Amino acid sequence: MTIQSNISELASSNFMKCKNYLYKNYGESPGKMLVHTGVLGWILSSAAQVLAIVVNDKISAKEKMFLIPQEFADAAVNILSFYLVTNSFTSVGNKLVKSGKLLTPKLKKFVDEQKIQDLGKVTTDISTNMTGDIRDHFMKFKGGVSIIASTLGSILSCNIITPVLRNQYAARKQKEILAMKDKNTNEPSLQDAPQKSLKSFGIRPLSMADYQKLAYMKFSGNSGNMRI
Amino acid sequence: MVSAISSFIKNSSVYRTIKSGGQKVQQAFYDVIPNKVISSEKWQKRIEWVNKEISTPENRLILGVTALMSQPFIDAHNKSVDEDTRKVSVCRTLAKIIAGTLTGYFIRKGCIKAIDKWSKLPSSVDKAGNKIELTKLNTIFSPSNALSDVCNAFIQYKNALGTIVALGVMTITNFVIDAPLTKFLTNKFVAAAGGVKHDDSK
Known about the structure:
By secondary structure, chain A is mostly helical. Helices cover about 75% and strands about 0% of the residues of chain A. Chain A has helices at about 1-25, 30-55, 60-100, 105-115, 130-185, 195-200, 210-220, and one strand at about 100-105. Chain A is flat. The model of chain A is unreliable at about 190-205 and about 220-225 (pLDDT under 50). The model of chain B has no long low-confidence stretch (mean pLDDT about 85). Chain B is mainly alpha-helical. Chains A and B meet through α1, α2, β1 and α5 of A and α2, β1, α3, α4 and α5 of B.
């Protein structure tokens, strides 16, 4: 009974720590929250895709060897491009307000009253001595700017950069498949060759039919994972 | 131990050189941007409105709408694939965006609403202005460091927690709702676009 109550107390205290951490970290940084939940969304979506392949009985072990690394490669492209672009946009938005480069008349008045020097320097933080109403106004303004910046960043990364990168990747893969098909027509013994010699040709040890089937599954609708 | 290592790294000359180099690059970028005071009240109100009203569900909706305006055109102009593949690709992209955006928006919205219901504070009141009686259930997600339930930080906290829960829910609905809905819509769109000459997908 004592052990049970201790475990329950520990779980409850850790849960409270988690909630307080979320409140402290995301309460005043909605832009950061959009970036982090966006990345988490991509990670979960990619993990679900990999899991779906791992547990799918209709896909053979050989096919899984092809599909799983491809899924990881896709996930890396999606997550990296989303994080790098969106996080950069959000940081710039936050820094513009924090350094005093982008102000409202109310904030400008505060900055002048406080005689804050070096406006626009990356090391400047105009919010250091802010309290009360002016701090509330600053937080709302900074929050709005950072949400606009992170939304612009995610539009650029999810809707332009990622589809273009993926189309180029898919086109390269299709060319590889066509090249392999040509090679296979000229060298019929290739499919029966030992795996070691297949590797020496720079191709994966899969049959042509398998490869084409997988390539169709993977690249015909080349817009990537199911974004959640 | 960890803090000692961290302080050793931060005090090292290599770290300080990299940090100061990074700051110089950043500063060169910010120097290009002119200082600006937003004097228009209309724009100030719009920015405050964004802070108050736009969170992850609306962000997902905006991403979906802008995706509809960009991704099908990127796929339609992908000259590296044949015409049939291009047509299916455009239809699948449209279907995927519609299915993903609808489920993404509504599940996020629903989870944030649920978190709001179960994150009451001593200062919480109902629509009629009466104090809400706190129970174990309606305080299950309440943080202990929140000052008031009307402050911006608490609203953003509920959005963050609701979104995290929604992401967990969506790893399941991704397969249960999105995938079949995408398949259904893709087939409808492909049929509406006149079908394909060589359908190898079946």
